[in-house]
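dumping this here so i dont lose it again. seq + smiles for S-adenosylmethionine
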Amino acid sequence: MNEQELTTQHQDSEEGSTPEGQESLFICTANHDFAAYAQEELRRLFGSVKSSVLSDREVLLVTLNEGQAQVVQKITESRPIFLRHIQPVQFQRSGENIGESLTEVASFIQSNNQIGAGVKVALQVRKSADAGGESAAQLKEWLEESLRDSEAEWVASGSDWIVSVYVTATDIYAGISRPEDNLSDWSGGAIRFRREEGQLSRAKFKLLEAEREFGLDFSAYRSAVDIGAAPGGWTSFLLERGLKVTAVDPAKLHPSLLKMPNLTYVRKNANEVKFRENEFDLLVCDMSWSPKLMVQMVTDLLHALSPGGTAIITIKLMHKKPMALIKDVISSFENSRLQVQRAKQLFHNREEITLYMIKY
Ligand SMILES: C[S@@+](CC[C@H](N)C(=O)[O-])C[C@H]1O[C@@H](n2cnc3c(N)ncnc32)[C@H](O)[C@@H]1O
């Protein structure tokens, strides 16, 4: 999507030089094909942005004209839609001898006095698509082995600090940061869920991720309407969470759902259904449809969502101007008494983003 918009500006950066108050170097990650929009978000925040592509349409090396702490504060406060993950670069080494470079990364980590006894540290290693050699998992294992003597507690999640290492065909980058400063505590923001036996669709992961990303607890709701519900991933997830669910879709729900006592299945086009006032406290919609028509349809059903109720809606990014499209959709919803809390391209979103809104 819209590759031309990704402007690349190569520049030399001095190893380890990220003086506060001047400029700082970050590796920034977006969903595949959406790095251009993450770059645009950075440009809107910082004015000029120098960047080069580390991995095609996904990962950028970005120099920003402010110190690391200010950059992190600005980015986290801005709650970007497309920028999924950031990691600071405090160490950089060029050269093709990966063994040598990794030894230096290990020394860089060991020399950091934050990584001390009893401190929980997560090591996250990623590679660009063009980097050959060992896998990221093997490189991580090697680094862990050489850091074994450190008194830090190496953990996979729930860490105090994250050490991020990124390897390309020619360079290796490393940085140490607080998990909350990376936009996501998952490596590259790639949050993974285990696929369960009998899971009806991968779409369930979107709702699971939305729940975490937006700090929601779906089990706290009473009654949901799921518009565009088939085959039933979201519906089954909400039923598992103990809600009553009304699933609307002209297509077939998976047969395993049909006997669920808390399910009402309305096998119709959402245009044809009628609901009572304030019937639901949660409205979810994952129709993969024209945003304009979806907005109209949701707006027509909004009387059924009680004031203070929540709406979780995916917006399909149909054309080449997603920023303008998102702005239009948000303003239409806000005119219909839906206050947008967050807009985010989740890791499990493809050509779409997810909106979290509250009706007032
Ligand atoms: C991407 S799928 C939804 C997947 C679902 N969230 C899940 O977890 O399994 C989109 C669904 O929207 C439905 N849909 C499209 N237009 C619709 C409409 N006007 N009214 C109701 N459902 C519609 C389609 O039939 C399709 O089943």
